[in-house]
# Entry
Amino acid sequence: MIQIASVILLALAPCAFWLWLIYKGDRYQPEPKIQIIKIFLLGAAVAIPVAIIESILYPGSVQAQLTLSAAAYVSFGVAGITEEAAKFMTVRIGIYRSRFFNEPSDGLVYAAAAALGFATLENVFYIINFGWQVILVRGMFSNLAHVLFSALWGYPLALVKLKIKAKIWLWLGLIGAITAHGLFDFLFFTQSVYTWLVIPLFLAMIIVFILMLRHSNRISQFNPHRS
# Structure
């Protein structure tokens, strides 16, 4: 029992930290914590059917050296599409129509909650299979990467609901999230010198996220200094 609790705490800790940090970035009307927790738990729950679907789409092991074609298929066709679609549907069904989804930054916050819930359950799987040390890398990079991918559709989702942008931006955001997710995984799966390209990709996505969060606060209807 103690061992199970330890695994859960290890899996949860980095995701809780990132979610807290992003929550603090929502400056003008922070979301109700109960709604954040709800989407977080839904994100974790949806990771189970996603894992089943992914095992059907690719029954092999991704831990082995993959050919370029297999790596591309697993990265873009399996992980990218399946995981981003699942996280998107979590937010779209779980909170989109709620009165609490009423500010540009809400798309980023709720997308992050779904992504980090999903990442927490992934952490549990990796800790059980590869040991607690894996969280040192996943907590710093993979968990945050899930947030950065989902932000690409999360922010347009809020802008579309608030009628600030046309729906085409949401579809572009989804395609962008799937592409970024797929490219991130693909570079890892190649296990070559090109794997180092994940670093500039990761940093670029962080910059994009920060710019979106700042923009969302600047245009918020609750910002008293909005022009």
